[in-house]
Amino acid sequence: MNKTKSSSPVDLAADWMLNSGIQSKDGGFYAWYDLAKKSPSFVYSEITGYAITTLLFLKNIYNDDIYLERATKAASWITDFALLPCGGIRTRLYKDDLSADKLYSFSGENIFSFDLGMVLYGMVNLYKVTKEKIFLDSAIKMTDFLLDKMQRKDGSFSAIYNVNTQKTHESFDKWSNQSGSFHSKVGLGLVDMFEVTKNKKYIESAGRICEYALTRQEKNGRFITNEADRTTNLHPHCYSAEGLLYTGSYLKEKKFIDSAKNAVMWIFDNLSSGKIDELYNPKTNNFNNFQRLDALSQSLRLGVMFEMDRKKLEELKNFILSHQYLKEGSSQTGGFLYSKTAEHINCWCTMFALQALAVYDNNKLISNNKRLDLFV
Fold first, then answer.
1. Strand 286-287 to strand 279-281: parallel, antiparallel, or no bridges (unpaired)?
2. Structural domains in the chain plus CATH codes
């Protein structure tokens, strides 16, 4: 794809995915590109999982096999370097993690259930397209590890499993280090694994994590994303809604879909001039003063799916577009900034933004039951 003046924001973002260098030579995806340092960050397994799904989504839009080739390369990086024998996925690869014999070592040995779930979803969807056995075998190994080692009796997932101790653990310093409603998004991969294998334990697992997510939602629609202070971070709040919507649509489970809709209504009730801040604190009844593009893009995508107020949707879309990096002649043109104050082009923000903008422009990408296949 050539970058021209007539290229749409989605076209430019798709081109960035292929040509910016955000995908490493081995196939994994970097988390972001630092404009000040003029270098990429670490290779991130979760984001590589998102990238597989995004590239398949773009293949459907542009009907260009280059997207499938890149998705396959990304999945091969996962199976070659990130997938552990137990079925867990190692998380982040830093430059210092290259050992003397050039094998990947990775920092730490923590497996995050959410990251694993995002890789799983990309992997099973790639199998659907390619029918290559290695991708299904890898997906089964990941799924069984998730269910056997990380899902609890109440349906929730432990946030972290340590390979060395062979134990799960969590902390309440940040939302991603604890069990939460956001793990309902792991249900995307579980639903699709059931579609492929017909193994009932996978769809039952998806239903159980959604049932648990319902217990973390307040009457006004917001999900509690940190148990320590009962705050709501918009990013995992959206993850919660996405998971409930996807599984609910497949199961035709109204309470899951209604929960997702209430979560989206809470967002749009608090949206002003196309903006909503990252963090809500119930003790002060206030948001902080910081907007992050991943959550804004998730909000737009969900807002389109639930047909929220058109004026608010347009304002939100325009604010998202103001984050696209458009410096002429730069290899990073087309990517999206993490925030107005951040100096990096963010990989997952770009993927979320391009999908949100695509469904905004073409709601036919969304099925009648509000299910979005290849939900990044």
1. antiparallel
2. 27-365 (1.50.10.10)
Pairing of the two strands 336-337 and 344-346 = antiparallel
How far apart CA 142 and CA 52 sit, in angstroms, is 16
Q: Which residues, 6+ apart, have CB-to-CB distance to 149 below 8 Å?
A: 86, 88, 158, 161, 168
| 40: helix, strand or coil | strand
Tokens of 140: 């089964």
63 backbone φψ class: left, alpha, beta (φ>0; ψ -120 to 50) = left
CA proximity to 304, closest of 247, 252, 350, 241: 241
pLDDT per residue over 21-35, tens digit each?
A: 999 999 999 999 999
Alpha carbon distance 223, 234 (integer Å): 9
Average pLDDT (102-121) is 80
Alpha carbon distance 331, 337 (integer Å): 14
For 208-236, the pLDDT digits (tens) are 999 999 999 999 999 999 999 999 999 99
